[in-house]
Specification:
Blueprint: H1 2-21, E1 32-35, H2 37-40, E2 46-51, E3 57-61, E4 64-68, E5 73-77, E6 85-90, E7 96-100, E8 103-109, E9 115-119, H3 120-123, E10 134-140, E11 143-148, E12 151-156, E13 159-164, E14 169-175, E15 178-183, E16 187-192, E17 195-198, E18 210-216, E19 219-224, E20 229-233, E21 236-240, H4 245-248, E22 253-258, E23 264-268, E24 273-276, E25 282-286, E26 297-302, E27 308-312, E28 316-319, E29 325-327, E30 338-344, E31 347-352, E32 355-360, H5 361-365, E33 375-376, E34 384-390, E35 393-398, E36 401-406, E37 409-415, E38 419-425, E39 428-436, E40 439-446, E41 449-455, E42 465-468, E43 474-478, E44 482-488, E45 495-501, E46 514-518, E47 521-526, E48 529-533, E49 540-542, H6 544-550, E50 556-561, E51 567-571, E52 574-580, E53 586-589, E54 606-609, E55 615-619, E56 622-626, E57 640-647, E58 653-657, E59 677-678, E60 685-691, E61 701-707, E62 721-724, E63 730-739, E64 749-755, H7 763-863, H8 870-889, H9 892-904, H10 908-915, H11 921-931, H12 936-943, H13 947-960, H14 969-975
Parallel strand pairs: 59-64
Antiparallel strand pairs: 1-28, 2-3, 3-4, 4-5, 6-7, 7-8, 8-9, 10-11, 11-12, 12-13, 14-15, 15-16, 16-17, 18-19, 19-20, 20-21, 22-23, 23-24, 24-25, 26-27, 27-28, 29-56, 30-31, 31-32, 32-33, 34-35, 35-36, 36-37, 38-39, 39-40, 40-41, 42-43, 43-44, 44-45, 46-47, 47-48, 48-49, 50-51, 51-52, 52-53, ...
Helix pairs in contact: 7-8, 7-9, 11-13, 11-14, 12-13
Length: about 1000
């Protein structure tokens, strides 16, 4: 029995926890994404919505079936009569059934991406065509039901059965696997097979104008257009009273949907959407004031991710009802940049760039958002940086000073040069230390009122972040300089000293440092993780416990401890919660807060927590509220899709596309349609792709890989298109996959294709090239043979000509040689003759001169007379002797000889004198005679000296010529 009780309690606790954790949020407004007609570029009216097995969204638009893949909108098909589509349904094979005006049929996707519409009305010519809008299209088991006010058409096994009404049909709805029809005269009828059967008590439904029926535990919930909600159970209809009746009865219900966890979504024509729980409590009212772009709701559907899609008279909206995050929205307030928030005495205060605002928090969270608005605190209109409770006072810190908030107004405590924040000085609860733009200020609590005391001396740095540690030390962080640890005097009116810490003390950088007090321990946020001070070395070192959870690569922008001792953090772009376990370890959770990426005001990241579990995030996009629920799945699988493939040349020649306004026009020469074969002229392709994850679709990243061309996957990026140009012939597979906001990687999408080689690289071209090559080789061989024969004949002819030419040249050489020899002989003869002539001339001159001398001597001798006295004779003999001496020593004949000699011997005398200037004229004469190959005996009489004298002269000449003793002077002279 005890075990049974324990099991029962555990089951009850589990069920209760699921109910608690799986509720749609009541606080705040869910995130809404609006898609206007300008966005999807189609008609404004949309009447239905569905999602296929892949996750693709389709909408019944006035222009046709509209598709949305998370990135692109397109009309994929239209009914044949081009009428407005009113309803859609889909079967297990993703065939879309369409109900339009006077038309119904189905659309199936082809392998090239196109949707082919088939009209069922046209297939059956005998089918009665007099019907209006097909308001509902439902797939039940193997049947497809098309409902209009005039007729019901049942399509099964390629046959259509028609059910008519004697009056008219008002509405059609399904409960589970049962289908019901509301007849204007007979009331509620149940469809069985191809017949309508009355429902017990169904007559009560006549005139109720029911717009939707939902299955609940209490019975069938009926949504009437103007009379609110009713429960049909045990054949009785009872009103279902809700907190939203004032809205539902005045604004005409148009549709409804059963939401997860037993909640009901009800769409209206004039007031948007309300969400109520099974007890009728109003959970949400989302209208134009709350962010819905139009208040005429035509249909409601949830997708696989839990998002609620709302089709409107003008536009489409997606509401993230499953998200634990919501916006504290007030359309009367245009302030969205939040620096801080605080709940005090059931009021929610927010610090903005335009003053301090507040609203009644208890009224707001109870569901009265429409009537609760933010109000300005009078007296504050500048940037309010911080707000906090100090003692029994609520203080705000603003650009102009420090304010105390009382009621709806602010009282200036002191005007300062900007005030950032304040902290109570440890062990001195009556002293408040305030950080300002240019230093610190001291306030004292006197009679429960904070009174300004003094601007603290000795420290003039901007003090935006002030934290105290367990030892009562006061730390100030300056984001661009470093960390200051302050020391005060006893009165706390002067900073007597401080320790300064920056990169030199162990921090990875001196920039963007911050300090936090977690579990009474001083921690520091840096660009490389969480640091702490080593107690021994006083150096700043990484904190090992936080390193395990937050790493060392992210900028720690904020650490905040909540009432349950969990630690909230902003690390890099991610926000998360470290939940403390019983063993002292932590588990981290980041996925629910990925939507906060890039929303914080840089440098003013703020998270406010409450004891009840409410968490507020101040962002550039307003105040965001978080309360945990279990309804949101962050790791759901989804698919990436290739939306369109086209050839760039020729321009926009499509290979794959679901757009209705285009048709694939590629030239598939062969092969499977799923792997088109393209000509080489189409070797430049453009791929468009998307992911079927609609939560923050703009944040989804993609990577792609063209197998056969790219070596590996690309880097993750936000690009949803990729072009490839000048692709060589090959078989290719284009792969793409997505990674959503929660880092979940999608299933892969692929597109196969093959590019043919250019005509000049085809097999036939290569065969032609081979044949041409063979012909060319044959022609070359023949040409070479002919050329060789001609060359041989020409060679023989050339050799004969060369032989004749050589003979003629040889004869010419012989003749020239003979002529040259004859010239040399002639020159030698002429030289010999000239020499002989010269000698003859010289000798002739000498003979003539000697004859003249002899005649002179003869005359003188003739004058000698024996009769003459001896003196006279002696005088005559003396004169004769002088004549002879003069002739022997005279140079006149020698000069004549030298001139002739130089002409015959190439200026021998001049060259010899130039080379050996020490030679005397007599030496020169001896050398000349030696050149004429005269011997010593022949030279002696020519010089009028003895043979011994000639030898002495030759000896002197040898010395002057610097000849060695074994050298022959005559040989040297002859060769000079």
């Amino acid at each position: 029995m005890t075990n049974f009780i324990l099991r029962f309690l555990v089951v009850c606790l589990f069920i209760f926890s699921c109910l608690v954790n799986a509720q749609i949020k009541k606080i705040g407004v869910p995130f809404i994404t609006n898609y206007s007609p300008k966005t999807y570029k189609a008609a404004s009216e949309n009447w239905d919505v569905l999602q296929n097995s892949k996750g693709m969204m389709f909408f019944a638009n006035h222009f046709g079936i509209m598709q949305f893949d998370g990135v692109r909108w397109s009309i994929v098909t239209q009914p044949e009569n081009k009428s407005m589509i009113r309803s859609l349904a889909i079967d297990k094979k993703d065939v879309i059934y369409v109900g339009a005006q006077g038309e119904f049929g189905y659309a199936a996707q082809l392998s090239n991406g196109q949707y082919k519409y088939t009209s069922l009305v046209k297939l059956f010519p005998n089918l009665a065509k007099k019907f209006g809008d097909v308001l509902h299209t439902i797939v039940v088991n193997e049947e497809v039901i098309f409902f209009s006010n005039e007729k019901i058409f049942i399509f099964k096994n390629n046959k259509i059965k028609v059910i008519k009404s004697d009056s008219s049909f008002d509405e059609f709805f399904t409960i589970g696997t049962d289908s019901y029809v509301l007849d204007s005269a007979k009331g509620l009828l149940k469809l069985k097979g191809d017949a309508l059967q009355p429902v017990t008590g169904g007559q009560q439904f006549v005139g109720m104008n029911i717009r939707k029926a939902l299955a609940t535990k209490e019975g069938m919930l009926l949504l009437t257009q103007k009379n609110g909600l009713f429960i049909f159970k045990n054949n009785q209809i009872k009103p279902f009273v809700t907190e939203a009746d004032y809205l539902l009865k005045q604004n005409q219900i148009s549709t409804g949907i059963l939401l997860p966890d037993g909640y009901y979504g009800i769409g209206m024509r004039q007031a948007g959407l309300v969400v109520i729980d099974s007890q009728g409590h109003l959970i949400q009212h989302i209208n134009k004031q709350m962010g819905l772009q139009n208040e005429y709701v035509t249909n409601l559907k949830t997708d696989k991710e839990g998002n609620l899609w709302v089709t409107l008279k003008e536009g489409i909206s997606m509401i993230q009802i499953s998200s634990p995050l919501s916006r504290i929205l007030d359309t009367s307030n245009s302030e969205t940049k939040i620096y801080c928030s605080q709940i005090y005495q059931n009021k929610l205060y927010i610090c903005t760039g335009n003053g301090l605002l507040w609203l009644d928090w208890e009224a707001y969270k109870s569901g009265k958002q429409e009537n609760v608005h933010f109000q300005h605190i009078s007296g504050m209109s500048e940037n309010v940086w911080n707000i906090g409770v100090y003692g029994n006072s609520l203080l705000a810190f603003e650009k102009n000073g420090i304010f105390e908030i009382k009621g709806n107004s602010a009282q200036l405590l002191t005007k300062t040069n900007g005030a950032w924040q304040g902290i109570i000085i440890p062990k001195h609860p009556d002293l408040l230390l305030v950080g300002g733009y240019t230093g610190l200020y001291l306030l004292k609590n006197i009679n429960k009122t904070w009174v300004y005391q003094i601007k603290i001396k000795g420290f003039d740095e901007s003090s935006r972040v002030i934290v105290t540690d367990r030892d009562g030390n006061i730390w100030v962080a300056h984001g661009y300089k470093g960390i200051f640890k302050l020391k005060f005097n006893k009165n706390f009116d002067t900073v007597t000293d401080y320790d300064f810490y920056n990169q030199k003390n162990g921090f990875p950088s001196s920039l963007f440092l911050n300090n936090f007090s977690i579990d009474n321990q001083m921690l520091f946020g840096t660009t490389k993780g969480v640091y702490k001070q080593d107690s021994k070395s006083k150096k700043m070192i990484p904190d090992a416990s936080f390193k395990k959870y937050l790493g060392t690569e992210n900028h720690i922008r904020l650490l905040k401890e909540d009432h349950q001792n969990n630690i909230w953090y902003v690390s890099g772009d991610n926000t998360g919660k470290m939940s403390r376990e019983a063993n002292g370890k932590f588990t981290t959770e980041e996925l629910p807060f990925r939507k906060l990426r890039y929303l914080y005001v840089p440098g003013f990241e703020n998270i406010q927590t409450t004891a009840s579990g409410d968490v507020f995030f101040g962002t550039q996009d307003g105040l965001i509220h978080y309360k945990k629920n279990g309804n949101k799945s962050y790791l759901s699988k989804y698919k990436a899709v290739i939306s369109e493939v086209k050839c760039i040349f020729p321009k926009d020649s499509l290979l794959f596309s679901s757009r209705y306004d285009v048709l694939p026009t590629h030239d598939i020469s062969s092969g499977d349609e799923l792997a088109p074969v393209l000509s080489y002229a189409n070797n430049a392709l453009h791929f468009s792709f998307a992911s079927l994850c609609y939560d923050e679709a703009d944040a989804t990243k993609y990577e792609y890989w063209l197998e056969g061309f790219d070596p590996k996957w690309s880097d993750w990026n936000l690009q949803t298109e990729k072009e490839y140009t000048n692709l060589p012939e090959n078989e290719y597979v284009f792969h793409v996959r997505a990674k959503n906001l929660y880092d979940v990687v999608s299933d892969e999408a692929v597109f196969k294709f093959r590019i043919l080689p250019p005509w000049y690289r085809t097999s036939w071209a290569y065969l032609l090239y081979l044949a041409l090559f063979c012909v060319l080789i044959y022609a070359i061989i023949r040409y070479q043979k002919n050329l060789a024969e001609r060359e041989r004949e020409q060679l023989i002819l050339n050799q004969e000509k060369e032989l004749l030419r050589n003979r003629a040249a040889l004869n010419e050489q012989k003749l020239a040689l003979e002529q040259e020899n004859m010239a040399i002989m002639r020159e030698n003869l002429e030289a010999t003759i000239n020499l002989k002539n010269a000698k003859v001339a010289s000798n002739t001159v000498n003979l003539i001169h000697l004859n003249e001398i002899l005649l002179s001597i003869k005359e003188l001798i003739g004058k000698i007379d024996k009769k003459n006295d001896a003196n006279v004779n002696f005088t005559l003999l003396t004169k004769i002797n002088r004549i002879i001496d003069h002739e022997l020593q005279g140079d006149q004949h020698w000069n004549e000889f030298e001139e002739i000699f130089n002409q015959l011997h190439d200026n021998f005398m001049q060259r010899l004198k130039t080379s050996f200037p020490e030679l005397t004229p007599r030496d020169m004469r001896v050398c000349a005679y030696l050149r004429m190959n005269f011997n010593t005996k022949e030279i002696a009489p020519l010089l009028g000296i003895s043979v011994r004298g000639v030898e002495d002269t030759r000896y002197r000449i040898r010395k002057k010529l610097q000849l060695p003793s074994d050298a022959n002077i005559t040989e040297f002279i002859l060769n000079f």
